[in-house]
Specification:
By secondary structure, the chain is of the alpha/beta class. The protein has helices at residues 2-21, 98-113, 133-136, 149-156, 214-230, 268-281; strands at residues 48-54, 57-62, 72-77, 81-85, 117-121, 142-144, 166-169, 174-179, 188-192, 197-201, 208-211, 235-238, 288-289, 294-297. A six-stranded mixed β-sheet has the order 1-2-3-4-5-6, covered by helices on one side. It has a five-stranded mixed β-sheet with strand order 7-8-9-10-12, covered by helices on one side. The chain has a three-stranded mixed β-sheet with strand order 11-14-13, with helices on one face.
Length: 299
């Protein structure tokens, strides 16, 4: 009997130790995001919402009252580098103190874990994703990657754009860089092998998927689907929320108030829904409304 009790106690200790080693993360399916105000003069939300996803990952959202685009930005810490994806839609550091916010997060993290180099990259070259680059340029221990395809390929050592997927190491944290042009020429997706998060920028998110180059966009979505077939995905995160909680209904363009937003995360099945829809539409660009996104060709 004593032996059985000892075995049981040992087993319980082992289970407890395993659970304690699993890092808790924020449930993004129920996360409340700041979503603007009917009258921005009455808005009391911070210019940037900071959500700690886990001890090495942060998600930031810009206040819609500073810019209606309200883009999301992402911080990934490794032992040697921290990667910031996108710098938001506002240049002014008083209205939108992104560098100060990121610097404080890095300072707090570094006090426990050591100094890291900041790498600033972009999901693509649209103004609401790089407006605050100037806040980071020339700052110590900081590299801001350029916005053109050549800048992206040179920095990440992509020799076969857009057909090559490459590794980018932050220091015991592997990121994968996936070219996905079509929405914009230098668009990339980023996969974090640690959290299994796949970032897809403005290529795939709960909103209007503006397609600039139809056939290239289709191939990029196929590339993403193939990637998800071969890699574990915990969630897919884009850079905006434009859909409401009502299936197929989006908010008006330039709205500053979105009280009942669609959740930010999307899943692999929804990505495959997009891919199948594009295949059925064929070579002729066409607008098509789905529950969680809208295919939206542009000239």
């Amino acid at each position: 009997m004593k032996t059985k009790i000892k075995i049981l106690i040992s087993a319980l200790i082992f289970i407890w130790s395993c659970k304690s080693s699993i890092e808790e993360t924020v449930d993004l399916n129920v996360q409340n995001w700041i979503h603007g105000s009917e009258n921005c003069e009455d808005n009391t939300d911070p210019p940037i919402q900071v959500v700690k996803y886990n001890s090495n990952t942060w998600i930031l959202r810009q206040n819609k009252c500073t810019n209606y685009e309200a883009p999301f930005m992402f911080l990934f810490f490794g032992e040697d580098k921290v990667l910031l994806m996108d710098t938001g839609a506002t240049k002014d550091d008083e209205t939108f103190p992104l560098y100060k916010t990121v610097k404080q997060i890095i300072k707090d993290w570094s006090e426990k874990n050591g100094e890291v180099e900041l790498i600033v990259a972009h999901t693509h070259k649209h103004g609401d994703h790089y407006a605050a680059d100037g806040q980071f340029e020339g700052k110590p221990n900081t590299t801001v990657i350029g916005l053109e395809v050549e800048d992206v390929t040179n920095f990440f050592n992509l020799s076969n754009w857009p057909n090559e997927i490459v590794d980018f190491e932050l220091g015991k944290r592997l990121m994968k860089i996936i070219p996905i042009p079509g929405h914009q020429a230098s668009s990339i997706a980023v996969y974090d092998a640690s959290t299994k998060i796949l970032l897809t920028g403005d290529t795939f998110y709960p909103g209007r998927l503006y397609v600039k180059d139809w056939n290239t966009f289709k191939m990029s979505i196929e590339r993403l689907v193939k990637f998800t077939d071969n890699n574990e995905i915990s969630t897919i995160l884009g850079n905006h929320i434009e859909m409401t909680q009502t299936p197929g209904v989006d908010y008006p363009i330039e709205t500053i108030y979105q009280p009942k937003e669609h959740q930010l995360p999307l899943g692999v099945l929804t990505l495959k829904e997009l891919s199948n829809a594009l295949t059925k539409l064929g070579d002729k660009p066409a607008k098509e409304v789905h529950d969680s996104f809208i295919i939206y060709p542009i000239d």
